[in-house]
Specification:
single chain; about 10% helix; 4-stranded antiparallel sheet; mainly beta; 5 helices
Length: about 400
């Protein structure tokens, strides 16, 4: 007791600015929690979520070892440890987005929700049957529960719950933490990969205008940056939606490249093109990343230029809101100038094996295993996804 009182007295002598500076230097969230929990003065001075939270290295949410298992493991790169959490709410769900510590889980039935895997808090989003091209949902119409309008042709046809679970939603990102009550969720959806959004409190999803085919979308400081097929960039925020503004002419890449969009720590925009090739593993064939090509936006000349290095940055891409981390925040064993990718490809929307995970070393131009994670299984389910720890309920 005397030691605790002495420590509190010493801490009170420190300035609040110094306390916050000490907190900023604790990159690992677990260390931050331990520091904040030392005594009451620190709890009152430091917020539950560190202000530098989004600069942290994300954790990798790993597949379940057993499909009936409710416990989910996480790989914490900063400690090179795995943590197991019981999250029964995610049983049977597929993951279609991760940002600000929350993931979008989907089962195929209309209900759609965000969940914080570290607190198990949930926030409902407008259901799947409120997307712009969905006409109705009838749970009694087996294997044809959803009636939808085919984009472009305006033909009407039906789809199953299984299709909506696996293939209808491609990715969802958030403008901010949903606990802010002023967040916006942006989704890439449908066969032609259109964009739709909903704001906090909305009852349905609204289509983004103009209608385009999109390959990826990211958010930063409340703005959405969407990469359209062909290479044009569209930007929107709470003041402009449902309209998005184009500010870059298009260009073409080979169709075999799957493209992700990343904002570097310097603010520059980069396209990561992953070359996918069919490879036979066991008795099945899978699309596996074999190479990456990068293009950086030259904002002065308004054109894309091929680049061979991202310098001191490291990219974390997949179904998450793409992240770029400075090398000074990277743990031992994780390298700068590398792209860490988790599987975000669903072949034909029919299955999701999640085996295309790894690291692409831009210096050596080769694919390597993800540090600390090697799957013992040929196929893992669902595919791993990057999650930035967020302890706020």
């Amino acid at each position: 007791m005397e030691e605790a009182q002495l420590l509190e007295g010493q801490l009170l002598e420190l300035s609040e600015d110094l306390i916050h500076e000490m907190g900023k230097r604790l990159i690992n969230y677990a260390d931050y929690v331990r520091f904040r929990s030392t005594c009451k003065p620190l709890k009152s001075m430091l917020p539950k979520t560190p202000n530098h939270q989004l600069s942290q290295v994300p954790w990798l949410m790993l597949p379940r070892e057993n499909v009936s298992e409710t416990r989910i493991s996480f790989l914490n790169p900063l400690e090179n440890k795995k943590y197991s959490l019981d999250i029964p709410e995610l049983h049977g769900k597929l993951f279609r987005g991760s940002s600000h510590g929350w993931i979008l889980a989907v089962y195929g039935h209309p209900e759609l929700f965000l969940i914080n895997p570290f607190t198990r808090a949930q926030i409902q989003l407008p259901p799947l049957d409120t997307f712009p091209n969905v006409l109705r949902y009838d749970p009694d119409d087996e294997d044809e529960e959803y009636l939808i309008v085919r984009e472009r042709t305006q033909s009407i046809y039906s789809q199953s719950v299984d299709y909506f679970r696996k293939a209808y939603l491609h990715k969802v990102v958030l403008s901010s933490s949903p606990t802010s009550k002023e967040y916006i969720a942006m989704a890439i959806y449908g066969y032609f990969t259109y964009l739709a959004f909903c704001k906090s409190g909305d009852k349905k999803w609204t289509q983004v205008q103009p209608v385009q085919n999109y390959e990826d979308v990211i958010s930063h400081d409340g703005k959405f940056y969407a990469l359209a097929v062909g290479g044009s960039i569209w930007v929107g925020d709470a003041t402009s939606l449902p309209k998005m503004m184009r500010f870059e002419p298009s260009f073409r890449l080979q169709l075999e490249y799957k493209r992700s969009f990343v904002r570097m720590t310097s603010g520059e925009l980069v396209i990561v093109g992953r070359l996918l090739e069919w490879k036979r593993i066991g008795w099945k064939r899978y699309l596996i990343t074999t190479h990456c090509r990068l293009f950086k936006l030259d904002q002065r000349r308004l054109k894309w230029s091929k680049v061979i290095s991202i310098g001191d940055d490291a990219f974390f891409i997949g179904r998450n809101n793409s992240l770029s981390i400075s090398s000074q925040n990277l743990p031992s064993g994780w390298s700068k100038n590398c792209i860490y990718f988790s599987d975000d490809f669903t072949e034909g929307g029919l299955h999701e094996d999640g085996i295309d995970n790894g690291m692409y070393d831009l210096k050596n131009r080769r694919i390597e295993a993800m540090p600390g994670y090697v799957s013992d299984s040929v196929a893992v389910w669902p595919g791993p996804i990057w999650v930035v720890p967020n302890p706020c309920p």
